[in-house]
Amino acid sequence: MGLQIYDFVSFFFTILLDIFFREIRPRGAHKIPQKGPVIFVAAPHANQFVDPLVLMRECGRRVSFLAAKKSMDRRWIGAGARSMNSIPVERPQDLAKAGSGTIKLQDRYGAPLRIIGLGTKFTKELLVGDQISLPKDVGTSAVVEIISDTELIVKKEFKDLKALELLTNPEGSKYKCLPHMDQSNVYKTVFERLNAGHCVGIFPEGGSHDRAEMLPLKAGVTIMALGALAANPSLDLKIVTCGLNYFHPHRFRSRAVVEFGEPITVPPELVEMYKRGGPEKREACGKLLDTIYEALRGVTLNAPDYETLMVIQAARRLYKPTHRKLQISQVVELNRRFVAGYMHFKDNPKVIEAKDKVMHYNTQLRYHGLRDHQVNIRFTRRHAIGMLLSRLAQMIFMSCLALPGTLMNLPVAIVARVISNKKAKEALAASTVKIAGRDVLATWKLLVALGLMPVLYFSYSVMVFIYCGRFDLALKPRLLIAWAAWALIPFVTYASIRFGEVGIDIFKSIRPLFLSIIPGEENTIDELRRARSELQKTITDLINELAPEIYPDFDSTRILDPKPNDRPSRSASGTNLAQTIFNTAAQPLSQWLGKDGRFDWERTEDSDADDVFFFLNPTGGIQGRSRANSWGGAYTPSADGSRSRNRSRTSSFTSGQIQLGEGFKLEALTELPRDKPFAEVTRRLSVSRKHRHGLEGMTRSDTEENEGGQGHATYGGVSTPPISISQHADDYVASKTKDV
């Protein structure tokens, strides 16, 4: 299939996402069928127009998303959506109108379906099939019969306590009239796309929101799948669930994980039930919707509230061992398992007590202005003073490097912030499910920047052109200089962003150093360390006690390699070029800033990189190690048996056969006995890495023997157990058979 306008627009938005997000990492993208019709079902819809762009970027297929007609009627948004082959959907809530008068229940128990109006005009404002909706979306019901202007019959009774409270009020309740929408044209378009072997994307929650859990799903996706299969039984249709997991959805340079579930094949018996219509059709839709919902829960993080989510994240960081880094996709998986465990045992007295302790610990951290990963950093006062001065110098230097781009783009940042906050307030006022309207912030920041930055950069080019006129230059050189300035400004902006990130990371590390040199504050830090240590032990013991009840194969001592299919995100080649240029130019700075082992270009802003996760079953696991350590440059055997160095920064996460919960065989990182301390594993691996690149006294045959798992190599008197690196599950089985 040749290039289409879709591909050019996708490339453009990919560049925007590379700039807005620090990292987007997919999980399970290998599960997506590369051919044939697919319905992508994504949730939670936490980032309005950004969500389809992120999904489109990572799925590797051309996807036609269902979009609200209200949004597609907007000039620029509609143009972009149509270029992406989006399918407009007219929603009843977009056409809702306030009804005249008020409504109430005259007889709650005797006639719960009969609605009485006070000053209403039912015959003029409603039709059979329309819906009436109560304030704050506490209840909605379809109209089945209109008796008069002040009396009608609804299809289902209102059972929610808030709805009953409104309807039993003597003065009645305000209401909205929602017209019945004929979506046959939408379904027809979807069926045509699927029959042509294309992909369709849908957000079944019906709208974006900023809640910590998924909203109830709409049944439209089931009608699309079952209807398409009913019309074409030979259609090889798959449903792929997509979990959109953002760390801070609305923040600039935040991180995200896009997780894809196993493709769902619709059972033929559900298609037959759908064909028969009536109650069986509704039952078939309900069963398929339940299947999709459970699949979505498996790829999303669903905390009951924000407070619980904060406790879960804190408990995840406290879970031993410390000072190990994870990929963000692995952090999301750990969060999900902690939430599942918490929801299962939330009434357990030990869990309640641990939750209270974690909340108190979080409060202490906020009071002292510290982050969890900073508590265990120990310095002598002399060392702290020296490092404080060094980091202050580094921060000032990085600030100077970031200043030009910051000042040039400050007008855009200010305008984007003002407009996005205004739009968030408008969205919150018009919604019944949003908490603070944060789901629209990122969208409007991108839209404002997309509109203002080209204008701003052009104005800077004009200024350069005018300034060059002071030097009596000819027109052509002035135009060339102005054009060069216009082309250079984006690179200056990107470099300023990267330098600014490092400067912010340094700034966040200054407070614990400052506290270390203040007389008397050492006791405060020591108390926090003791509290953290006790809390770590409490959480670890609690997990080791309770985890086997929901994970029968739980193994608290297993240390496993990360999942190979957690590959780096797809990114635009233009952005990769900018990153390559920046990283090459900044290498001396990187070495200087990283000399104390605390900073690198990929530093995680919320200390998630300091977490470790081996709370997994032996059929899928994660080994916590740094994203920026020397494992990325390990030697791996090539196909012909020779050794070559993998230059990829993420090679340590994409090599090997170990996967997370995928049913593949696993291989422990090391053959060190489980009863040995983890520090001993770290020490031996560290020694192995230092000598891995070859000591002159070590022969090639010794190296090959050690790599083949046939013996231990001795370096400087330290015996290091063999570490086998396999590329496929078959290699793993073969190596284990050989060892036996």
Descriptive keywords:
seven-stranded antiparallel β-sheet, seven-stranded mixed β-sheet, 23 helices, globular, 18 strands, Phospholipid/glycerol acyltransferase domain-containing protein, single chain, disordered C terminus, alpha/beta
Record the SSE blueprint.
Elements (H helix, E strand, L loop, with lengths): L4 H16 E7 L10 E6 L6 H10 L3 E6 H4 L2 H9 L3 E3 L7 E2 L3 E4 L8 E5 L3 H4 L5 E3 L6 E9 L2 E4 L6 H7 L8 E3 L5 H12 L3 E4 L17 H12 L6 E9 L7 E7 L7 H9 L1 H20 L8 H13 L9 H18 L3 H20 L12 H50 L10 H28 L6 H43 L3 H30 L22 H13 L1 H7 L41 E3 L5 E3 L5 H4 L23 H15 L7 H8 L5 E3 L2 E3 L8 H11 L1
Parallel strand pairs: 1-14, 2-12, 2-13, 3-4, 3-12
Antiparallel strand pairs: 5-11, 6-7, 7-10, 8-9, 8-11, 9-10, 13-14, 15-16, 17-18
